[in-house]
Amino acid sequence: MRGVTGMFQRWLILLFGSIFFIQGCGASGQPLPTVPVPLATATVGVPVQPARAPDVPLDLPELDAAAEPRIAVTAVPQPAVLAGDPIRVVIDAIAVDQPLVPVGLDTERVPIVPKHDIGWYFYSALPGAGENVVLWGHVLRFRDAPEIPAPFARLHELQVGATIALHNEAGQVFTYRVAEQLWVTPDQVNFILPQGREQLTLVSCIGDKIVVDNTVDMSHRLITIALPE
Question: For the chain, what is the domain count?
């Protein structure tokens, strides 16, 4: 089990990876030949202006696409309870019960979105660590596997108060309740940055379907924020 180490450096990597919001919902930067799945109309929240990132030197490691990076840092004081990597997410309200795939960045520092799975961005927080745990996934099926549903296709159906359970590798279960859902534009990256509190943030796409460089994208990002019980 990996402890909560190098949190500061992990969040610097996350800040660099925020280009994901601008690049769209394509898997690993590849074209997304999809059959669009209609999305129900959702209530649109008022977009929030992005917070200004702190002025700190970005001393980032070189990333190797052959192996997803883990950052070795000097040991720091640990919290009283150490949480393990999240390995499963359960959202009963929309029939989601799936393993999580830890994902990092590709060689162009764009976050990797699993094709059919839900990704946990391993440069974000661990459950129980008192910070922002970030998950993301697709909302459209892939034409080469139309029988496999997109993991977050029904995320827009969640209501305030719905529960989301994260299971970690240590056997602990962390339960969160949906507090709000927001439509934001792709450049509003502050939602995946540190928030100064324990929360779970799920990122998916929503809105009008558009084509950019032969890749299907959507006009907005759906941000689902859940707080611990």
Answer: 1
The answer to whether position 2 is within a domain reads no
Minimum mean pLDDT among 11-15, 37-41, 181-185: which range? 37-41
55: how many CB neighbours lie within 10 A of its CB? Answer: 5
Structural domain span for residue 127: 7-228
Say if residue 95's pLDDT is above 90. yes
Q: Give pLDDT tens digits for 125-153.
A: 999 999 999 999 999 999 899 999 999 99
- What is the end-to-end Cα distance of the chain in Å, rounded? 24
- Rounded alpha-carbon distances, angstroms, from residue 203 to 34, 76, 120, 170, 178: 19, 30, 10, 25, 13
**Contact present, 110 and 19 (Cβ < 8 Å):** yes
Residue 169 within a domain: yes
Burial of 176 (0-12, 13-18, 19+ CB in 10 A): buried
Task: Return the CATH number at 41.
Answer: 2.40.260.10
